[in-house]
Amino acid sequence: MSALTIRNVKKSFGNTHILKGINLSIEAGRFLTLVGPSGCGKSTLLNIIAGLESPSSGEILIGDRNVNQLSPKDRDIAMVFQSYALYPNMNVRKNILFGLEIRKVPKAEQAAIVDRIARMLQIENLLDRKPAQLSGGQRQRVAMGRALARDPKLFLFDEPLSNLDAKLRVSMRAEIKQLHQRLKTTIVYVTHDQIEAMTLGDYIAVLNNGEVQQFGTPDAIYNDPANRFVADFIGSPPMNFIPCEVVGSSSQGFGVKMTHEGGDFVLEASGDLKPWLGKHVVLGIRPEQITHVVTSRLDERGVSGHACPVHLCEPTGPDTLVTTSINQTKVLARVRPDTAGTPGQSMDLMFDMNKAVFFDPTTGERLRFQLLKAA
Amino acid sequence: MVESMPGVKQRPLMRAVVYVPLILTAIYFLLPLIVMLLTSVKTMDEIRAGNLLSLPATLTFEPWAKAWDKMGGTFTNSFMIVVPAVAISTAVGAFNGFVLTKWRFRGSELLFGMLLVGCFIPFQVILLPMARTLGLLGLAGTTGGLILVHVIYGLAFTTLFFRNFYVAVPDELVKAARIDGAGFFTIFWRIILPLSGPIIVVSVIWQFTQIWNDFLFGVVYSSGETQPITVALNNLVNTSTGVKEYNVDMAAALLAALPTLVVYILAGKHFVAGLTAGAVKG
After folding, report:
1. Residues 6+ apart with CB under 8 A from A355
2. Which of A188, A214, A232 is the last residue of a domain?
3. Does the domain made of B62-275 have the CATH classification 1.10.3720.10?
4. ipTM at complex level
5. Facing A88 at nearest CB: one of B181, B186, B280
6. pLDDT per position as a tens digit, A46-63
7. Is the pLDDT confidence value at B3 over 60?
8. Secondary structure (3-state) at A238
9. Does residue B24 surpass a pLDDT of 60?
10. How many CB atoms lie under 10 A from the CB of residue A262?
11. Which residues on B lie below 8 Å from A71 (Cβ)?
């Protein structure tokens, strides 16, 4: 049974269309992340699920109940906000209990719930403090505690980690994931951070301009992007997009022509590119698919080495990012630090075309081809 | 301040250049108050002798007793007007501010704009229409009528204060409370109002000072027994019969000024803090 169904939800203000027909559905116990750049409508969608805003049209179902007409308090949801939104005049205990108190939960039960949650989130020693006396991470925990107190059907997270510093963000991210694994609750999590989206979600919905660009598992989103926007948005450093011409290759397959200041070469494609022969496409290839040469792999299909000019080297520690230029486009390669070349000279780079994808140069849609049988 | 100006600290001459004008200015501004105080405890004979600034040869509190005799009743009148008027206008202002920022509706910005205009309407303009309105309501010449006028006139300001304060309170607080199950009034009473301390102080001081010092509305809309103290003071000082008792006049004027002075001394430092208070840290 699906825990949350969003059916053709639209939201407009006059002629401004914030959401243009969203369809999503997740089963109980799953973690859905909504990711997209600012202004893509993800927070609006979350507010509509919460009932804080109403859709212009479309349906929201929580469980199998249509909640369109229900106010937020009757939807059996809890929400964690970016600014934590703790009530400043109440201490931590009262913050956690506020919702229960309003719902007239018996006192004894309230006390038991606070105990359980304080233990779970390790905030027992903070219960009598005011929010102003807490650090960012502690406030975040209390905000989660408040959401957990009512044990709702659906948890909504609105960019809950954006206000934390980088290190704390990573550890809180892991805690949220752990909490989800333990409690098996259904979560909808909004973020603009693609790494958060990838690490946390069972499913990811990538939004842009009020439309779902792609809805799928993190693996599908990363390796099988539906269009150039998704390919570009997910992954850091982002995928390389190289405009190029489709040509026939030596082995009766097809390839794409690459040109740089040192000369030309052809990268062999694994798909049947015949419909685009002689036309221009955009090759999408991730930096980790352009590496230093591993000799033993060179005879694999779709793998080839080519000398490329080095423009810039950026060591990150485990890898060094090497910038080169192909078809007048900046291209990033991820190489082992000791193999990185010197700017101004050229180095051999190995291109692995097996996970490469192609896009229509005008629409940005993914071009899908039949795989060619091995010769 | 001195620490941040090392040049001043080192050279006594520079110091004098800063402090002497400061002290002179302070004396200049304090002088009327000193003259009033001194005059109010002198006998009439001594006042007629003519030296405004001399210390009283014989200290007398009779003028104060006399002033209280004449004005004591209106002192109470003023309180009867000021306390409810301040309380009501502050409470309604807080409520307005809450609705205008956290419960917006179509046209709420326009409504706020129109309310703001209220801050700029001169008192004289509404004298006649308001007199007619009070007459129709049967409130002419009553304390209730004066309270109503002051509440209406004060609303524009108190709404402005609270609205600007609540704009800085994060909307997410209200969203969180709504999801927690709190309704309109619960959110106002349990979440928003407890945050409003600083701006309540501002509103109370502002309204108290305005209403206590008001003369025009008082003189127009009150009758004999409901007169506020400012009107009584005017009547006392402007009598053209009998001997002018300057010492009583001064004591009466000080009496009329005392409450606003006390309010400001007690809560003055919160006034500035409240006006400059920023977002509520959650």
Report:
1. A223, A285, A286, A289
2. A232
3. yes
4. 0.80
5. B280
6. 999 999 999 999 999 998
7. no
8. coil
9. yes
10. 12
11. 178
